[in-house]
Amino acid sequence: MTDQETIERFKFLRSQGWSFNRIAVELSVSKPTLIKWGRQHQFEIQNLRATETEGLIEKFFRPQHERMRNLSALMERIEQELEQRKLDTVPTARLLSLAASLRAEIARETTLRPFTEATRNIPAAEYVDEVMDWQV
């Protein structure tokens, strides 16, 4: 395996959540070297993780817009029911709990998975000296 192939394999394994110790054994590379590579390629590794996570979500769940539509519809039904209920009944407490859970789920669903880029890869004309919060 060439050095570049080893680095590419390292980035893949790291993006899959492997520890430095496990990768060191797998690739026969010292842990300090792996840590250095981890720093050098941190944005690529983060982007691989984000892409992998996005792929798993799409594989095992309906598309995000469909999940959001379903969660929103269910939330509307619960809120309509809550408006009709008296607050001293037990089912109301359960509905309030369910509404809170749904709000949390909606918040998780609407959290974007940011992609990142090393500043050295950004053309000088496009570089801004602050955090780049790109949304895809």
List its traits.
mainly alpha, 6 helices, 68% helix, 136 residues, 2 domains
Describe the structure.
- The chain is an all-alpha fold.
- 68% of the residues lie in helices and 0% in strands.
- It has 2 domains: 1-60; 62-111.
- The chain is built from 6 helices and no strands.
- Helix 1 crosses helix 4.
- The longest helix is centred in the middle third of the chain and has 21 residues, at 64-84.
- The protein is elongated, with a radius of gyration of 22 Å.
- The two termini are 35 Å apart.
- The mean pLDDT is 82.
- What spatial form do the alpha-carbon principal axes imply? elongated
Q: Uncertain segments of ≥5 residues (pLDDT<50)? A: none
The termini sit apart by 35 Å
Please indicate the percent range of residues in DSSP E strands (runs of 2 or more): under 5%
Radius of gyration: 22 Å
* Overall pLDDT metric: 82
Order of helices and strands: HHHHHH
The count of domains is 2
